[in-house]
Amino acid sequence: MGGMIDWGTAVQTGARLVRPGPQVSAEEAKDVVRELRELSAVAQEHVREFTGMNVLPDPQPATIVDRPGWIKANVDGFRVVLEPLVDKLSQRKTATGPVGIAVDLVGARVTGMQMGAILAYMASRVLGQYELFLPPDPSGRASTGRLTLVAPNIVQTERELGVDTRDFRLWVCLHEETHRAQFTGVPWLRGYVQDQMTRFLLASDIGPSELLDRIKDAAEAVADAVRGGESTLIDAIQSPEQRVILDRLTAVMTLVEGHGDFVMDAVGPGVVPTVEQIRSKFNGRRGGGSKLDKTIRRLLGIEIKMKQYAEGSRFVRRVHAEVGMAGFNRVWDSPETLPTIAEIADPQAWITRVVRPSLPGEVLELEKPNGTES
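RE: above sequence
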């Protein structure tokens, strides 16, 4: 397990395979960067006001990257999460000797190349992200996370969709700024997600024979996806214990993605005048792509992510309509108030468990349904 993934290979492979972005002049590129930085600050204000979340304004504007920059940032993030685990796992390792080590080295290179290929694929699609896991800054302080926007992908998407560029850029910023609000305004959330990820990875301690079974399952998942089936690699490589943890992770990620989607649309026409046109064109694009594109997305579990956005925003919308923003914000009280996977599908069950016990019915009826209460 020594060098489970050769990160250098991952970055090099990714940078080599990634497609170049759309053609823009140097002048245009400068304008895009300037406007995205500006709009990330504008979005921050709107998100704070609309969500009623307790967020300190972040003096840092968004970090604007190109595709290779996005790949590098993600590899840095993976290292922060995975390296401590690799150490833990390698302490458990029994098979040593020169053969074991040679296999490890080859395995590490291959995994680095696979990781690079996946990142190259993703790098031309991601519009922006809130990076949770960053290497500590040079002073050794753990950094709090960083909002990153991938300029070439934003430009390419707005051109393909033929939408108003300022509106589209602000709309993307609203989604990402909502993530910044979640992870900086809810003190326990980041630690919770990291803890679940760690547990998930540590729960995969399996012996050689089980490993062979998993590899067979993974190969079948690939074949199945090519045939148009539903399996994903994520399913193939799990132990039962991991499934339980993955359900918790999926629930929290569905919530934060859905909340981001809800906010970017609900902040509304006053802020993004063409929001409805953008949303309908954008949704058309989310479902699109070639057969190969769809296969890769399904394999990587990105199809699941598309469903998550939809289910997550439906949950947030229903809860918000029923108990207002203050009621919805109870979701951030503690890990116990997060919705389960079942509750995301049944928002009423979450309301009954978390919101109703503490509030008599009459008070709820008086709450403003449009969520203006802070």
